[in-house]
Amino acid sequence: MLKLGNVEFKSRLILGTGKFSDTETMIKAIEASGTELVTVALRRFNREKPSDDLCAPLAKLKNVRLMPNTSGAMNAKEAVRAAQLGRELSGSPFVKVEIHPNPHHLMPDAIETYLAAKELAADGFIVLPYIPADPVLAKKLEDVGCAAVMPLGAAIGSGGGLSTADMIRLIIRDSNIPVIVDAGLRAPSEAARAMEMGCDAVLVNSAIAAAKDPVAMARAFALGVETGYAARLAGLMPKSDIAVATSPLTSFLK
Amino acid sequence: MFLTVNGEKYEHGGDGAVSALLAELGATPEHTAVTVNGDLVFSKQWKDFKLNDGDTVEVLTFVGGG
User: How many whole angstroms separate alpha carbon A70 and alpha carbon B65?
Assistant: First the structure.
């Protein structure tokens, strides 16, 4: 079981709810993925388009918890306020801290993220910070009480894959809290690889929402995560620089 | 009463309670979070919390996000 704070999850796939063409597709993708935790964002209420409100459709899903994010926050202070609003609205203690002030690359601001995560963890939130794949930062976030760390695989929405694999391995090696790859994944095989490496979960949004068939891709990611995790538990064979024969090389044909 | 609601000038015709403003806007209370002049106002306070002329109000809800 994946344990985040005091909550246990059977599924190791977390879904983002952005970029879906319509709410119905999003709901079906969530169901197909088997996820039990989805991220949502806070925005101003739109009088012209009240249908944008995701609260009602998401509330109908059983066994799916909400994790409000702090997107739009430019610094720790704004992120803390967004988190408090998210908690008020969702009733959920989960928060994805994300602070990425530069819209070009959306790289997380490590310093502001650390400050916000520390304050929110002390305030009783279950904090999952979106971070650069930095083992030093990850350890410091563990020390201040984060429930998990979420290093990026590649830039948000880029589909760049697991470009930070080496750094993520270092994070996993030292971490006593779950490590969740968040952002950048494009293919279920990348999710499988992340899980084989020792990640505890993956968070996927664009790869599913922007797929030709989001519902089918949600299912494919669920299988990828499940396969990779099963392989990790099974234990991969050791690597060898030379061939190691699988058939006996006896000389009876001579 | 003139307010700034979600960044725009807004004339509120009700009694100035946060709950009255939300009803006027057509927002579903249980799907809404509110700040007044930057401070979070909890939903249990909405009936009693009175807005003042010139207040800046943010009315927020959840949308899709990663």
Answer: 10
β-pair partners for A42 = B62
Q: CA quadruple A175, A178, A182, A188: dihedral positive or negative?
A: positive
Task: State the Cα angle at A141 between A63 and A33, rounded to 5°.
Answer: 25
Answer whether residue B14 shows pLDDT above 70.
yes
Which residues, other chains included, contact A174 with Cβ-Cβ below 8 Å and sequence gap of 6+?
Answer: A135, A138, A139
Domains present along chain B, CATH in parentheses: 2-60 (3.10.20.30)
- CB of A19 within 8 Å of a chain B CB? The answer is yes
Fold observed for domain A2-234: TIM Barrel (3.20.20)
Distance CA A73, CA A82 (A): 7
Cβ–Cβ below 8 Å for A18 and B64: yes
Band of the pLDDT at B9, cuts 50, 70, 90?
very high
Centroid of chain to Cα B31: 12
Nearest C-alpha of chain B: how many angstroms from A55? Answer: 6
CB A97 within 8 A of CB A116: yes
Provide the whole-model pTM. 0.92
pLDDT digits 0-9 by tens, A160-209: 999 999 999 999 999 999 999 999 999 999 999 999 999 999 999 999 99
- Complex ipTM over 0.90: yes
> What are the extents of the domains in chain A?
2-234
Residue closest to A203 by CA, chosen among A60, A18, A21, A7: A18
